[in-house]
Automatic annotation (TrEMBL):
Segments of skewed composition (Basic and acidic residues): 84-106
Domain of life: Bacteria
Protein name, entry field: Uncharacterized protein
Keyword Transmembrane: yes
Keywords: Membrane, Transmembrane, Transmembrane helix
Record field: transmembrane: 36-55
Region (Disordered): 75-106
Amino acid sequence: MKLKRILALTGALLLVALFVLAIILAVTGAPKNYLMAVIFSMVFIPIIMFAMGLMTRVLKPSEPVDMEALKAEAEKAGMAGTRTAHDKAEDKGVGKTKGCDKTSRP
């Protein structure tokens, strides 16, 4: 968590420095190319950082599902014995077809 805060503070300081540099370049009459490069950096760097953070969240491997914890939560919520209408219909023999088993349903 500390690393995120340090990186966020560094990014904020970089943007402030770029803003101050843009003002200084504009006031001193620096060449147009320098000013445009600083303004471009003020826009482009945050976009790239946001995209990198987004891709990190999207591509991060998910944690394996702990089935025991899910069952414990379901029991605590009172849903452990809940059955679907499909399960009840199968018990009565309704809708049974040749070669149909419980693993084939969506």
